[in-house]
## 1
Amino acid sequence: MFNKYYTKMKRSIFFSIFSIFLILSACRTKPDKSPYTITQNIIGDSCMVVAEHPLASKVGVKILKAGGNAIDAAIATQFALAVVHPRAGNIGGGGFMVVRMADGETAALDYREEAPSSAYRDMYLDSTETVIELLSKEGHLAVGVPGTVAGMEAAFQKFSQLKNWGQLLEPAIQLAENGFKITQPEATRLNKYKKQFFQQNETGVPFVIKGQWEMGDLLVQKDLAATLRRISEHGAKGFYEGETADLIVTEMKRGGGLITKEDLQNYEVRWRDPIISEYKNYRVITMPPSSSGGVALSQLLKMIEPFPLAQYGFHSAKSVHTIVEAERRVYADRSKFLGDSDFYPVPVDSLLDDDYLKIRMADFDISEATLSDSMGSGNFKDVESFETTHTSIVDAAGNAVAVTTTLNLNYGSKVIVAGGGFFLNDEMDDFSAKPGVPNYFGLIGAEANAIEPGKRMLSSMTPTIVEKDDDLFLVVGAPGGSTIITAVLQTILNVVEYGMPLDEAVEAPRFHHQWLPDQIKVEPTAIDTVERQILWDMGHQLKGVSRMALIKAVQVLPDGKLHGVGDPRNVDDHAEGY
Ligand code: GLY
């Protein structure tokens, strides 16, 4: 008995010290001054763009001012991010876009990467059937067939108001051609990954310089500018065919990658029906498979709905316990049932069925944690995973776009297409390389997410739009790997259950549980000491982390104005509106 108490006390003391350390180190690493004026919390009269780099948000606003709608702005912002945010903004990756037009029409665009045609289930296993570390994460074999450029063209063809593709590309071309001043986080990241850039690439790439990068240095990307020009002139064919395709295939051959010309030519986006679910008087419009994000978010909201969270209190042990127990069950479902619905019969309707979700919570005990370990074990790495990027946009007509895009890990596979000037993704790691073996984000998968040629790897990206009483209310999403889903959930709950203004809702510290490993990841100050101890006593394991996910959101206020908020966890997040 004493030993048990002593162990708990030790854990609790360790956790407190760790939290203080994280707060102090976060304070120390804050850069002195950005080359840009950053705004993370503003009110606009009619338009708003929130993205992960000030120059990208400004490009979006410029397109809105030129008469473009939210989709035009999203496309131009995406291409700008491919230049100014090379770790995640991309043309060599993929993503998802959720649209809600002012008239209520909704759409979900899947431009996720696909496994190349010669990919196969055990391609990352050695002769003893052990996963070969790094093979799916770095280098040419990690690369899935990119979807971003096809995605932007499809969005343009369906929804553009400006109807001028070249105009949407031009700001990105200028930024690549003339260069832009890098921020402190970018300088730090480019220096950090220098060795990997050298390992994966011939010399002469713009991201590698002799010395160290410093804030304010100019990053010029001539090859990328030329690639963007080909896309500007020929549309998606400027990427999937001709010179760019040749450069990609040559790069693949150089490093033993699998993508062929046919893989590029055959890539197609998918327009899908968004997942739409109700939560009280809110309607949540979000991304279906090949992302798990929308199914998981909708399951979570439905499972939590019957519990009086506001009455329990913000981040009280009782409310954290309730949310965590729902998360545990939802991430367990994710690992078994979720994958690319074009290849595997994902039981979306059953997973979202009210009766199923009631049964799923039937063994929930308000006073005790359910243990996950009977279901296998995970291995969640202590990493800050913000490699994806999200943009939230609302235009003057009330059209809204939530778009999340990624190369997977920072700078993807670290492979830069020689002569093309852009990073290729390492999205193959989002497949389940072997049933039960966790990927980078500690997520476990099975048959539903096994590798097959042409299949899309399961994602956690959760671009989401919320209506209140049938009107546009919230546009939200984030980078953050497996923590995206729970960060989007908490942002919504903070606004609708705890009545926080959007800036407080985004800033509020977060927690996360993903079934395996069986622990609640907790940002510093997210749960106070007394409540933490109650959670330990209930049987939960708590683990301190510095920060999770970087929300970008726009809320429509009661007077019709727009509240745009970037995440203070990321100094480069920028909200711009008018
Ligand atoms: N690559 C991270 C995700 O799609 O969830």
Note: The first helix runs from residue 2 to 28.
## 2
Amino acid sequence: MKRTDIRLIFENKEAYSGNEITVCGWIRTLRSSNAIGFIEINDGSCFKNLQVVFEAEKFENFKEVTTYTVGSAIICKGILKLTPEAKQPFELSATDIELEGLADLSYPLQKKKHSPEFLRTIPHLRGRANTFSAVFRMRSELAFALHSFFRSRGFMYVHTPLITTGDAEGAGEMFRLAPVGGKEFFGQPAYLTVSGQLEGESMAMAFGKIYTFGPTFRAENSNTARHAAEFWMIEPEMAFADLEDDMELAEAMIKYVLNHILTNCKDELEFLNRFYDSELIERLNTVANSEFGRITYTEAVDVLMKHNDEFEYKVFWGCDLATEHERYLTEKIYKKPLFVTDYPKEIKAFYMRLNDDGKTVAAVDALVPGVGEIIGGSQREERLDLLEAKINEVMDNPETYSRYLDLRRYGGTKHAGFGLGFERLLMYVTGISNIRDVLPYPRTAGNAY
Ligand code: 4AD
Ligand code: MG
């Protein structure tokens, strides 16, 4: 069967005007009188619906078609007619409507508005609701834009293992992996990865500029709107690069993907702007065209301490910044995306490069309004003696990092990279405030629908 995507018609209606075409999709609404009926059909190829008109005098089974329910799958054949005077730019004047699958009257997406909490309990159906139609299409566009950005800069895409034997972050948030009822499958304890960085670094030492893009897993027991147990991360790694190069890359990446989304997801953005965040489009446009702020952790702490009465967790030098602090900085003080650099070594991962002050490391977090941290990165410790001492000092199983140390032994160089939380970025570009609503099947502490 030759079917036409509704998206193609919206992109170039003149090309289809007067043609007989077939569209396949799901009924969003159906209304009818004795003589004529209207179906809004959505096929998932774009945000918009196509209006299908069917008339009693042309349809033997007119009465039957009027009984098709919301959610039913249908195949419509007809002639595309431009309707410049009407609300919608064109309609399909149907010659045949075939029922593929009737939706039972218990179909939950009958009424227009449901709470996000309810919709999370039906992840298998919510893709057919407007919000998720927009968000999941944007998820795909965003992934494509990221690949195309890194490709345009000569980065190689590498796949790092999801099953690992070491803790890449040293934060002890790994899920343990074992066969059901079986023994240690790999002959040693194995875990789901929290980050592809360490393997990514080894690939960068062979290919210069690489990135990973895949799922990562964290057993963080934090029940927040921005933590998931399974999320996707993009991790670029560059040999011969320092923290400045890292920030330049991160800023260019975010601007590139924002421009892509602004150009390619107009209908989705308009919908989200209308129903979720009335400043969304304006904000994305501004950010795509302005410089990100840059401050050190020490400067951030100085600024925040002046507002300690407004925080649940009081700020002091040496504390980890919480979401409330990150959002205060980027939303209230600087009012734009922000790089915060040079954190105390005690609160950051073992692999970050020690600064000359001996107290801070060459770390960078990127913070954005509405979400807080979306990127965590650093220049890596390339000095063998310092790295070895640090691993021996803070890691549980120092011997598992011998290969990582080898990279410093055999032609090491300064290098840097970061991890971008894909869902955090998607929250930012959609204005959706809960990570559970940008993952098709969210997994969070206590929930795996
Ligand atoms: O800051 P993180 O922990 O950094 C790393 O994992 C480094 N290995 C990255 C690197 O340098 N290659 O995580 C990176 C980003 C965070 O900034 C955040 O956006 C996201 O991953 N992230 C999460 N997103 C959703 N749910 C969680 N539980 C997340 N934990 C981190
Ligand atoms: Mg982080």
Note: The first helix runs from residue 6 to 11.
